[in-house]
Structure formats: structure tokens, C-alpha cells
């Protein structure tokens, strides 16, 4: 940022020893002012945290992921992903090759246009030169269904039946499809939708718009829940994240679970490990005693007495029954109940068929660190990036260490593309060298030491090259909720929350599967059966991928 009060230019003749001394002192004072401003910002953030608020980050993205991508060669494909422009301009983006823009369009109307002047005698017709104009017609279309009423000889009255996609209401399938698409895909609020439709000549109330958004959604929500069950059964890895999401005037959270083939959201009032395990069960809660539950209790330090009390557990279904079971055993300690619940939920999850080979990749939040866990490298590097050095030596050490991390990250990405077991020892050695070094910056050394304790989670890609190295997918998926929170604030009814989570999950999954969300909504509302169930598409793609050598 430019200095609002820059020093005036001083010519060489006026630069006496006294002036040079004063300029040096002014420079030191300005540096001290910058340090004081940084310290004040840190103290304000700490005060905000103590008040229960979130400190606002002031740092920019590091760019590590983009800058460590391999440079494309001259012989790249026609899409132009890396080959430079012959004129010396920037590389073309993928898919920018020339193509006929209107070749695939459906022509709804053809209009013959003669020349605007009188044709001279002897002129000959030489055919047409087509000029395609794309347009959109938005107009109300009101249909009166005249239901025939007949009376049989025995007095029974028979009445015609409305089409099934009307759901007994006075608004058609395409109008409901449009309302759902605008609200959930384009994030248009209900008041704006109401204003827009009234201006187009649709006689509709705010309450009727809400009914179109939340009514008759059971089939959508069932399909949304089946997404998670199917995806967990066929996936090799998932990334997870959460963010704030208000509901009924209270602060809550929405948890995202997904990968490159699906996205699933669920809003709750908690983001604890218990909540995460309950979400992974994707249905009625199951609490089970097995070897995995026992191991978890031991690892988390559950005392022997509560463990002995829980030995009678087999399987309990439902949270109220589980809470009653803990009460009956006399386990009243909050910590003991939490660990017991986490272990029993973990046991139930594995009993339900959760794969122990499924990797969970997170940003380092403790609630996600269960079973086979990996960490996001972008978030790990961010811990180094956001440090605020106080002198040139510390700044130099920070820049050098970040460069070493970037180089290692680039080599890990190359290893992921072409796994070579012979490279593993050298990569592990470089990791140790970077994260155990000592610099002139004590805070940096502590950060590196802390990251070194997560070596296996950061280097899990050496054992599993199929894993991604970051949670950018989750960050992108959850961005829509952040915008929703800024625009609408939160949800009021439980049905509204379920619809928000459900349609966000279906929309993101359609996008990842290459399915038009507009076509999906039309198919489900009109019950056409042309768009297959999303869980079936996920399962079919997983089977096809596993069959590919």
C-alpha cells in the first residue's frame, strides 16, 4: 500500500550527514510503526477470539497449488492447455480451440429475408446465407384443466384426474422447476423470486413460493441421503470441511463430505467428532462394542472402570437408547461419556461396512482425525505463510522455508502422477530435513516441529498415490454456503434446512457427474425417468474405474 505521507525528494547537495542520520531514523520509525500495526492487529484478533468471535485473516493465498503445476510442453493437445500462442501471447485455456458455435443448436423457427431492394430483371436465386439468432421467450402459460364429471347409474360420481406432476397444486412443473433452479442454483432469494414472477404476470404469493420450494421434496431428500451411503461404499478417499450456518436464529454448522464424484452437506448445531461419526453413519445411529471401539477407548484414555462397565454392550440403535444405557451404567463424567460415545459410534460405523481403506482428508480439524487420516498440504503451508516476521533475517528464513516446502510439494505431485517406490526414502528424508531445521525465527521453528508430528498424515500419498494432496474440492464446494449465509442469513424451519442441504448436495453432485441440474430437476418433477438416480451413476462410474487397468 502506498505511503499516504511520502517524504519529499531530497537532492544530492542537501544530503548532509545530519540529513542522512535523520532519514535513517525516520526509516526505523516507519518500520517500528509497521510492526506496531501488525502487533495491534494480532491483539485485536486475540480479543475477538476471547469474545467468541472469529479473527479476520489478513493474509493472501500462497499460490502453492497453482505454482507447482508442471509446465506444459509445446506438443500439448489441441485444447491449448500449455502451448504458447505463436504471437507470443499467453497460453490458451483448455477447450478454446475453434469450433462451429451454432452447429448443435435446435432451430425452432426459420424466417426468409429477401434483399431490401427491388431485384433487377434477370437476377438468379443463389441459395441462402444463414444467420442464427439465439433468444429466450419468457411468458406465462396458463392451462385450464376441465375435469369431466360423470355420474354412474348407481349414483357414484367420477371425476377426471389431474397430471401427476401438478401434486394437487395450481402451479405447473416447469414453474416449480424454475423456482427450485433459481433459488438453489442461482441463489435468488424468495422475495426477489416473488417480485420477478409477479412482474412476468404470474399470480403467486410469497407463501406459495415457499410451498414450491419445500413441498413434495421427500424423493429429492431420500436421493440425497443415498448419495452418501453409496459414495462411501465405492470411494477410495473423501475430503471434509465445515463452516458456519445459522438455523432458527442460532449459530450452527454445515459439514461437507465429498470427492471428485459427489458432494454431500448436512447442517447441525455441532461440529464435534461425535457429530462427524453420526453423519458418516448416514442414517439411524448405531452404537456397537467391537475391537475397534475398544482400541479407540484405550487410545483416548478412557479409564478401565468405564470400559469394564461397557463390556455388556452389543449394539444399541438410536441416540436416546444409548444415552439411557450410559445413565443406567452410572457413567456421568462428561469426558467419559464423550469418549464412550465416540468409540461406540466408530464401532457401529465399521460394523455397517465402512471401509478401513477409505482415506479421510481434512484441513487438520481434530473432529476429522479418525481412521485413515491425511492432511491438506495447502493448509499446512498456510501455517508458515501466515506468520508475521519482525526483521529481515526472519523474513528471509520464512521465504526460504516456504520455497523448500513448495519444491517438496511439487515433487509429491509428480510422485502421485508417476509413483516410484524408489523415491520414497529420499522424499521422506527431505521432509525430515525441512520440518526439523532450526532458523533464526523461533515461532517458525515451533510451527515446523508441530507439522513434523503429522508426518504420516502429510506423506500418506507415498503409500496411497490415489489420494489428493489438498482439500481444495471441499473449499470450493462449501463456498456456496458462505455466500448463502451472507445473502440469506440462515434457515427458519427444519424442512427449509433439509431442503437447503439436500438441493445443494444434489446440485454439486450433478455438476461433478456432468449432469445438467436443470435437466435433473425437470426429470424428477415430471417423473420422466430419463436421468438415472445419482447414486446409481456414482456406483457405475466406480465400477468402470475399477475395471480400467
By DSSP, the count of extended strands is 11
* Rg estimate, integer Å: 31 Å
Question: For the residues shown, what is the average pLDDT?
Answer: 87
Helix/strand/pairing class, anyone?
A: alpha/beta
* Weakly predicted, low-confidence segments: 73-91
Give the quaternary arrangement of the chains.
single chain
**Largest beta sheet, briefly?**
5 strands, mixed
So how many helices? 20
How far apart are the termini? Answer: 54 Å
Helical proportion, percent range: 40-55%
Share in β-strands: 5-15%
What would you call the shape?
globular
Strand order of the largest sheet: 6-5-3-9-10
Task: Explain what the structure shows.
This protein is an alpha/beta fold and 549 residues long. The chain has helices at 17-50, 64-67, 173-185, 190-199, 206-214, 218-234, 273-281, 291-299, 304-309, 319-329, 334-351, 377-385, 392-417, 424-435, 442-452, 455-458, 472-488, 494-513, 517-526, 534-547; strands at 149-151, 157-159, 237-244, 246-247, 253-259, 262-268, 286-288, 315-317, 359-362, 373-375, 490-491. α7 (273-281) packs parallel to α11. The two termini are 54 Å apart.
Short description:
It is built from 20 helices and eleven strands. The protein is α/β, with parallel strands linked by helices.
Topology:
Elements: H1 17-50, H2 64-67, E1 149-151, E2 157-159, H3 173-185, H4 190-199, H5 206-214, H6 218-234, E3 237-244, E4 246-247, E5 253-259, E6 262-268, H7 273-281, E7 286-288, H8 291-299, H9 304-309, E8 315-317, H10 319-329, H11 334-351, E9 359-362, E10 373-375, H12 377-385, H13 392-417, H14 424-435, H15 442-452, H16 455-458, H17 472-488, E11 490-491, H18 494-513, H19 517-526, H20 534-547
Parallel strand pairs: 3-9, 4-11, 9-10
Antiparallel strand pairs: 1-2, 3-5, 5-6, 7-8
Amino acid at each position: 500500500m502506498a505511503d499516504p505521507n511520502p517524504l519529499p525528494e531530497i537532492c544530492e547537495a542537501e544530503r548532509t550527514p545530519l540529513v542522512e542520520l535523520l532519514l535513517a531514523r525516520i526509516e526505523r520509525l516507519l518500520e517500528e510503526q509497521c510492526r506496531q500495526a501488525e502487533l495491534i492487529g494480532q491483539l485485536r484478533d486475540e480479543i475477538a477470539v476471547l469474545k467468541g468471535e472469529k479473527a479476520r485473516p489478513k493474509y493472501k493465498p500462497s499460490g502453492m497449488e497453482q505454482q507447482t503445476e508442471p509446465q506444459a510442453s509445446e506438443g500439448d493437445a489441441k485444447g491449448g492447455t500449455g502451448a504458447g500462442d505463436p504471437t507470443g501471447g499467453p497460453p490458451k485455456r483448455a477447450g478454446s480451440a475453434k469450433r462451429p458455435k451454432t452447429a448443435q443448436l435446435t432451430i425452432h423457427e426459420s424466417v426468409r429475408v429477401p434483399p431490401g431492394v427491388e431485384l433487377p430483371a434477370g437476377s438468379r436465386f443463389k441459395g441462402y446465407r444463414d444467420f442464427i439468432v439465439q433468444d429466450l421467450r419468457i411468458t406465462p402459460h396458463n392451462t385450464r384443466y376441465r375435469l369431466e364429471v360423470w355420474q354412474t347409474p348407481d349414483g357414484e360420481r367420477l371425476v377426471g384426474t389431474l397430471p401427476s406432476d401438478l401434486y394437487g397444486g395450481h402451479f405447473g412443473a416447469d414453474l416449480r422447476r424454475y423456482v427450485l433452479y433459481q433459488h438453489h442454483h442461482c441463489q435468488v432469494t424468495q422475495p426477489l423470486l416473488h417480485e420477478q414472477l409477479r412482474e412476468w404476470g404470474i399470480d403467486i404469493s410469497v407463501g406459495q413460493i415457499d410451498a414450491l420450494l419445500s413441498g413434495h421434496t421427500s424423493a429429492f431428500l431420500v436421493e440425497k441421503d443415498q448419495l452418501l451411503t453409496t459414495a462411501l461404499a465405492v470411494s477410495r478417499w473423501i475430503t471434509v470441511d465445515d463452516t458456519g450456518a445459522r438455523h432458527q436464529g442460532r449459530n450452527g454448522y454445515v459439514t461437507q463430505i465429498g470427492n471428485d464424484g459427489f458432494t454431500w452437506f448436512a447442517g447441525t448445531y455441532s461440529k464435534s467428532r461425535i457429530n462427524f461419526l453420526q453423519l458418516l453413519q448416514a442414517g439411524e445411529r448405531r452404537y456397537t462394542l467391537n475391537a475397534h471401539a475398544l482400541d479407540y477407548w484405550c487410545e483416548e484414555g478412557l479409564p478401565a472402570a468405564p470400559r469394564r462397565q461397557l463390556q455388556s454392550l452389543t449394539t444399541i440403535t438410536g441416540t436416546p437408547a444409548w444415552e439411557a444405557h450410559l445413565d443406567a451404567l452410572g457413567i456421568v463424567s462428561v469426558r467419559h461419556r464423550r469418549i464412550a460415545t465416540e468409540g461406540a459410534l466408530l464401532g457401529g460405523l465399521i460394523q455397517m461396512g465402512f471401509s478401513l481403506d477409505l482415506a479421510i482428508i481434512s484441513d487438520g480439524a481434530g473432529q476429522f482425525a479418525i481412521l485413515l487420516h491425511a492432511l491438506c498440504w495447502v493448509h499446512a503451508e498456510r501455517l508458515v505463510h501466515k506468520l508475521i516476521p519482525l526483521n529481515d533475517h526472519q523474513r528471509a528464513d520464512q521465504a526460504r522455508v516456504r520455497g523448500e516446502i513448495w519444491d517438496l510439494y511439487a515433487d509429491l505431485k509428480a510422485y502421485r502422477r508417476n509413483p516410484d517406490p524408489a523415491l520414497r526414502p529420499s522424499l521422506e528424508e527431505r521432509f525430515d530435513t525441512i520440518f526439523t531445521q532450526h532458523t533464526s525465527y523461533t515461532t517458525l521453528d515451533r510451527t515446523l516441529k508441530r507439522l513434523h508430528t503429522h508426518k504420516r498424515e502429510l506423506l500418506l500419498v507415498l503409500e496411497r498415490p490415489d489420494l489428493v494432496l489438498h482439500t481444495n474440492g471441499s473449499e470450493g464446494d462449501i463456498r456456496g454456503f458462505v455466500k448463502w449465509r451472507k445473502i440469506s442469513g440462515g434457515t427458519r424451519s427444519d424442512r427449509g434446512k433439509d431442503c437447503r442441504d439436500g438441493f445443494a448436495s444434489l446440485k454439486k453432485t450433478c455438476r461433478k457427474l456432468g449432469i445438467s441440474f436443470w435437466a435433473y430437476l425437470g426429470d424428477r418433477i415430471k417423473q420422466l425417468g430419463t436421468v438415472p438416480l445419482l447414486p446409481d451413476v456414482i456406483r457405475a462410474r466406480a465400477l468402470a474405474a475399477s475395471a480400467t487397468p
